[in-house]
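Hi, here's the filled form for the chain we discussed.

Project: internal
Contact: R.S.
Residues: 295
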Amino acid sequence: MKEIEDILGTDKVRYNEPMSRHTSFKVGGPAEIFALVDSVSKLQEIIELCKNKNIPITIVGNGSNLLVSDDGIKGLVIKYIANDISINETEVVCSGGVINSILANKLLENCLSGFEFAAGIPGTVAGAVYMNAGAFDGEMKNIVTYVKYVDIDTNEIKIIHNNEIKFSYRESIFKNLNAVIFEIGMKFNKDEKENIETKMKAYKEKRMQTQPLEYPSAGSTFKRGKDFISAKLIDECGLKGYKIGGAQVSTKHAGFIVNVGNANAKDILDLIEYVQKVVYEKFEKNLETEVRIIR
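And the returned structure, exactly as it came back:
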């Protein structure tokens, strides 16, 4: 679409772009138009253009918690890629497109502690805010001070502070907003570089020991229940290793569904539904998906 190319440049716009290239599951049909956006001003121009032409907009991050159907995505898919980081003492401001591991290493260089838990989460900081990502007793809600975003419905820039974001387990207000997170403010603590590095290494080793990192996946497929651990129930149903097509319940961690060989999105969706059915029949517990599904 020439108008989008005029705003972003032809190198930032792709047509019928396979979403399998942009998700950690390595599956997903084509995005009708896929655009890489690197500034808020361009973002607002694109949104205005799409509103005028009634083009639907879908926002994605690094695709690490995303399952796109084999049918793909109609309209425009926007990936916000601005990646600025600024540090003032213990206060940090970063763009939504910054990758978690890059921020973690930058904080390490500056002897700032509090983000070690997210160093191994392969998404963007905006994505981590969106789902209140957490691991090893850390969560985004503990470090975020404010978030700036573009409201897609009004195309206005808005700011929201921690107590308004409604953070809870793998949830935030952004799941109910039509928005693009473009800036995150955070607060950290000073610590010895050696201590931070030790924590990051320990968490990395634990991930490697307990998670099936050798296969494409979207991390934990199911949320933890209020009174149960999903992976434990799946394991007790004897589902470890169960396969549909190229999708498999991990033999290493039952909470992960992995792509063990040319799976498509339907294989993964069918396996998710099968696991939910079996667990409900045995334990009468509903497993909610942690992964974001675009059908």
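Let me know if anything looks off before we file it.
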